[in-house]
Target: Putative pterin-4-alpha-carbinolamine dehydratase
Amino acid sequence: MSILATHQVLDAGLADWRKLAQALHARFLTRDFATGLALVAAIGDLAEDTDHHPDLVLTYPHVDVKLLSHDAGGVTTRDVELARKISLLAAERGIGADPAAPTVVELALDTADAASIGPFWAALLTGDAHAVDGDDVVDPTGRVPLLWFQHTDRHETPRQRFHLDVWVPHDVANARIDAAVAAGGRIVEDFEAPSFTVLADAEGNRACVCTILER
Model:
């Protein structure tokens, strides 16, 4: 099954859902634990019926859902179809969604030799030095954010430069950027917007606000 292009995901009309990085995300506002637990149980039954299983996070006020076809490495029609069914389950129970809420944070580290430092960071973050997939340190249990290595030229003096990639829904990115600037930040680079915009705080620490658009 092939991965859907960005325009195909947007054209699917999933009002409750937003694609961030590799997966579809939704937050359903259950407002109490019992309602959330019942929704999770219903989604579980649906997942068993369709043999496609989302990641679920149940908290007192909401349920977060993540959909990804792991065998394809991205969002497929299988995810879109299940997303529609989950939204229908929620709507039947009078549960609304907050499509502006989903956020994914990734860590990026500049390096001239990802192969040599990858096992260290994998062991430190996940306890498994082999938890490296290409240029990514991946925690399959979801305990820590993904760490990816950004290739740079080798430097005589070792240096370390981290930055955060903050994935937000494409239709709230400008508001998030405006809020960060209003809070004392500045835009460093926006020539790749809306794909990503580089921001910095007052001390020069950087982060990228990322969306799925124009990728």
